[in-house]
Amino acid sequence: MKKSISPYHIQSIQEFHSLMQLPEPKAPLISLVRFEDIKEIPVTVPKSLILPFFSLWLKKDYHGGRLKYGQQIYDFDAGSMSFFESGQFFTYDEGEVSHRGWWLMIAPEFILKSPLASTIRQRSFFSYSIHEALHLSDEEEMIIDEIMQKIDWEITHSMDDCSSKIIISYVELLLNYAERFYNRQFMTRKTITNELVDRLNRLLDDWINNSILENEKLPSVKAVSQKLNVSTNYLSDMLKGITGKTTLQHIHDKLIETAKIKLSTTNMTISEISYELGFEHPQSFAKLFKNKTNISPNQFRRNLQ
Q1: What's the pLDDT at 61?
Q2: Does residue 292 or residue 6 have the better pLDDT?
């Protein structure tokens, strides 16, 4: 059996620069590297790394090598952005890495005293744990590139008391644009997203109507996402962009839709229906039903008579 290799923990941005044979960073807690300066990953760099900083990538083209973020291959290509949370691990293939663009590294300490410290992890694209990079149009790429250049100017010139505030404001602007562009991506990639909606509906039908419930009870957002091979945040963001509803709302809607059919076509008791749908307690089922329909299950059945 092949022995797994533990990832190497990078301790700082400075150590990362040293490993990659890059010049010393201009500041200890933030760095902006041009991918053009990384001609080839040195053979001394471990193939699996844990990075202690947030990473924001803008790649203008890409040739060679593959990257795994967490457990999944990342789907980056020409004109794309990628967002990686601090403390995550990367593995990559050997070989030359040839692309242009920017790698922005932000240590959590750099934003610690700013509102961004509490909101950056709320940006769901930092936890798209599979393969969904942000693919940019030429105009979108120009906007992001201009912001990166402004950050680069602040870092490379003598940093003063205002520099951190200005850089953080640029990072927030960059993330706001990324959120807008992701929403656009969800809309323009309708073929993929509509297929995912269809897969979700089929999965929920099978889950509720067949034997899946015997082992897994109520379908959870996490379990549904895993079966669809997408992250929980990505699935909910995609669904909300296309349908206006989150994954949990889709699950609840499917449960209530099935409950209405059983209430109207069978003589099952409310308790029997709730247990069959995967609820541990009939009261929980009745509460959800009333929240979604404004009437109780018993009242719904009486109204049909």
Answers
A1: 65
A2: 292
User: How far, in Å, are 49, 155, 160, 218, 295 from residue 277 at the CA level?
Assistant: 44, 57, 61, 7, 19
Q: Using the 8-state DSSP alphabet, how is residue 37 labeled?
A: G
Say how far apart CA 135 and CA 75 lie, in whole Å. 10
Q: Is residue 111 very low, low, confident or very high in pLDDT (cuts 50, 70, 90)?
A: very high
- C-beta atoms surrounding 197 within 10 Å: 16
Most confident range (mean pLDDT) of 89-93, 106-110, 192-196 is: 106-110
Summarize the chain as % helix, strand, coil (round to 5): 50, 15, 35
Entry field: residues in the chain: 305
Closest CA to 136 of 144, 126, 128: 144
Sequence-distant (6+) residues with CB within 8 A of 231 are 127, 128, 129, 130, 132, 225
Output the CA angle 270-198-72, nearest 5 degrees. 110
Q: For residue 132, what pLDDT is reported?
A: 65
CA atoms within 13 A on the CB side of 163: 16
Is the CB of residue 36 less than 8 Å from the CB of residue 96? no
- 119-122: long-range contacts, CB 8 A cutoff, minimum separation 24: 120/54, 120/175, 121/85
Show the DSSP H helices in the chain as ranges.
13-19, 116-119, 138-156, 163-188, 190-209, 212-216, 221-228, 232-243, 247-265, 270-276, 282-293, 297-303
Say if pTM beats, i.e. exceeds, 0.90. Answer: no
pLDDT at 69 over 50: no
Cα–Cα–Cα angle for 166, 172, 247, nearest 5°? 170
